[in-house]
Write a structure and sequence with these properties.
single chain, alpha+beta, 2-methylcitrate dehydratase PrpD, 60s Ribosomal Protein L30, Chain: A, 2 domains, two-stranded antiparallel sheet, 21 helices, MmgE/PrpD_sf_1, MmgE_PrpD, MmgE_PrpD_N, MmgE/PrpD family protein
């Protein structure tokens, strides 16, 4: 991409992002509410994992703020620290239970960074209604999605989500804080410049707690806006104002990409979900019993074939796995947080099943990436019978939506280790209550602090 920018391209983006009465269609607000509650369920489920504990402790130790109004509360924790640190800790926590939403076209995740930022900014908006919060969040999704598409189209490396969802975070904050167009323009420029241009395939090759970089995306996005408010300059963001990407932003406010975000049924990298759907078909619809399987051959797209191949030693490796995810699903009949943590990583039954699985890259599936996450599975059963799943796409997006009942069940699976079922039920009720005229966002905020009987 050239370094030439056209500032006139920015004017309609600023009008969209900063409009306090932004007209958002009802179906978009409803989808945004569902994504918000789903993300909070993942955040609760991740609260007991090591990455969440480490980042929350680190934020409290090293992200202090002198003024009380510069602090935000750590969700599912209760302690307070500086706003950028609070968002970083929660986004990193969510990122390390890989069950949060995403958008195929971005090859990554938006809500993982935006939801933590929403709560950090909202603490200074005691008058914020549920609909206002959802409007700001939906707007942030749209800005982040286009920043992602623009970046992927103009650079050679495949960067993590933090590289571009930082811009959505900055826009969300500018909207909630009533900033002017100049502050937003510089905030987007700073966020783009400092956003982590981390290389996704390096993390795929060696999975760690770094995951998809969304923690740094949240930190950079909030910091960028707060700096721009004080006069720090950084415009332009060329992924916003570059002439090569003008078409990416041209439909802003007309095409609401948030309705195409997927919800994950499993806390595993989305690249494995096509093959997992194949297994669901084989086991659930064709009656294959796992103990019948002699070998399992998986055809998948190149990125999926590059996922961690062996028996994982850590939850990070398990979440960026393909063979292990399939083996665990077959052995346990489900795939939730319990199946990718603790003793589940050393289950000899899963290791034995993994040894029967082979993976190959399949060009026809690669040709359909990133629009789809396609795979096929061939099971050779004891006795010689061969059963094929056919081509399967990942479930949870607009092409194969999860039923509402399944999304509700997922909330209990994800959050059940941290929250009581009463609290989980109350969170789910907020999915619709936030849409009510006059409903206060603080009603939801009050549900994301520690329960009295759970530290």
């Amino acid at each position: 991409m050239s370094n030439v920018a056209d500032s006139s391209q920015f004017a309609p983006i600023a009008r969209f992002a900063l409009d306090p009465a932004l007209p958002v269609p009802e179906d978009v607000l409803a989808q945004t509410a569902t994504l918000l509650i789903d993300t909070l369920g993942v955040a609760a489920g991740a609260a007991t994992l090591d990455p969440g504990r480490i980042t929350r402790d680190f934020a409290c130790d090293f992200h202090g703020a002198v003024r009380e109004d510069h602090r935000a509360t750590l969700l599912f924790d209760g302690r307070r620290c500086a706003m950028p640190g609070a968002a970083w800790a929660l986004a990193t926590q969510i990122d390390n239970l890989d069950a949060h939403d995403g958008l195929n076209a971005t090859k990554g995740h938006i809500g993982c960074a935006l939801v933590p930022a929403l709560f950090a900014f909202a603490e200074q908006r005691t008058d914020l209604t549920g609909r206002q919060a959802l409007t700001a969040l939906a707007m942030g999704y749209e800005v982040a999605a286009r920043a992602a598409v623009a970046l992927h189209a103009t650079v050679s490396d495949y960067h993590t989500s933090g590289a571009w969802n930082a811009l959505g975070v900055a826009a969300l904050g500018a909207h909630l804080r009533g900033c002017d167009a100049e502050a937003l323009r510089h905030a987007l420029g700073i966020a783009e410049y400092h956003g982590p241009r981390s290389q996704m395939m390096r993390e795929i090759a060696s999975p760690t707690m770094l995951h998809d970089g969304s923690g740094m995306g949240a930190l950079v996005g909030i910091s960028s806006l707060l700096q721009a408010e004080r006069g720090f300059t950084g415009a332009p963001a060329i992924t916003v104002e570059g002439p090569e990407v003008a078409h990416v932003w041209a439909d802003l406010g007309r095409d609401w990409t948030v309705v195409r975000n997927y919800i994950k049924p499993y806390p595993i990298c989305r690249w494995a979900h096509g093959a997992l759907e194949c297994l669901r078909v084989l086991v659930g619809e064709q009656g294959v019993s796992p103990d019948q399987i002699e070998t399992l051959e998986v055809g998948t797209f190149a990125q999926s074939a590059a996922l961690f191949p062996g028996m994982p030693e850590t939850t990070s490796e398990a979440q960026y796995s393909l063979g292990f995810a399939l083996a665990a699903y077959l052995v346990h009949g489900r795939l939730g947080p319990t199946e990718i943590t603790g003793d589940a990583l050393r289950d000899p039954r899963v290791a034995a099943m993994l040894a029967r699985i082979t993976v190959r890259g399949e060009p026809r599936h690669s040709a359909r990436f990133p629009e789809g996450r396609w795979s096929d599975v061939t099971a050779r059963l004891k006795g010689g019978r061969v059963i094929r799943s056919g081509d399967c796409n990942a479930r949870g997006g607009p092409e194969a939506p999860m039923p509402v009942a399944d999304i509700r069940a997922k909330l209990s699976v994800m959050a059940g280790r941290a929250l009581s079922e009463v609290r989980i039920g109350a969170l789910w009720e907020m999915r619709e209550r936030l849409l009510d005229q006059g409903a206060e966002f603080s009603q939801l905020a009050g549900l994301v602090y520690p329960e009295p009987d759970r530290p």
